[in-house]
Write a structure and sequence with these properties.
Distance between the termini: 77 Å
Number of strands: 7
Radius of gyration: 23 Å
Helix content: 25-40%
Number of domains: 2
Length: 208
């Protein structure tokens, strides 16, 4: 092995870990952990790096992945804080749903009260009346997740979902959790477990 390559390899393997705000335990889920092995190519930047034998990323790229995860859009419960000047994704309880689907994932613009959600329908605005269940300010269509389920659960006991509206959303949520299991969603067990926590909440149900 040429000396310059060997020297460079040694430098990479034994380079000190920077003393910064990112703990090793926080970086593990994002593909990096300390160790004395040499990784031939980082998943993101393709550069060689030192770390644990099972690392997928160099430390710098793991930090970028962690920061992106922390800064990602998050599901918000109810309509509080929802932008009214741009479209967002929302699970929306539709008062006049004609397709048998009481709660629908839609992209549109909400009013301040979260009771009117304007969506694009064949190039024309369509105002739908109901209630925002939860929303997320993201560009790509989101899938059901544990975070979304938790946001849905948080709104069920609220006044907006009184008069037995909460149980309709609860029934829908349980069906969607079951659908995640049937479809083989990778987080199906966690989604189902989170959805079943609704039984611990106290709100008006038609059978109570």
């Amino acid at each position: 092995m040429p000396e310059d390559v060997a020297t460079n390899l040694t430098r990479v393997i034994y380079a000190p870990i920077p003393d910064d705000a990112f703990a090793d335990v926080d970086l593990r889920p994002f593909g990096w952990a300390p160790g004395g092995y040499f990784g031939r190519g980082c998943l993101d930047c393709s550069e060689g790096f030192s770390g644990d034998k099972r690392c997928r990323r160099c430390r710098a790229c793991a930090i970028k992945a962690l920061v992106a995860h922390r800064d990602r859009p998050r599901w918000q419960s109810g309509h509080e804080g929802i932008p009214t000047d741009r479209p967002v994704w929302a699970y929306f309880y539709d008062n006049g749903s004609g397709d048998g689907q009481d709660v629908t994932l839609l992209r549109g613009v909400s009013d301040e009260d979260g009771e009117t959600f304007t969506v694009d329908y064949e190039g024309r605005p369509w105002e739908r009346d109901g209630h925002i269940v939860c929303w997320i300010d993201a560009q790509e269509r989101p899938s059901l997740s544990v975070e979304a389920v938790e946001a849905i659960l948080a709104v069920l006991p609220s006044e907006a979902f009184d008069l037995c509206l909460g149980h309709v959303v609860e029934d829908w949520l349980h069906r969607e959790a079951l659908r995640a299991v049937v479809d083989g969603h990778r987080d199906a067990p966690a989604i189902a477990a989170a959805a079943l926590k609704s039984r611990e909440l106290k709100f008006s149900r038609y059978y109570d």
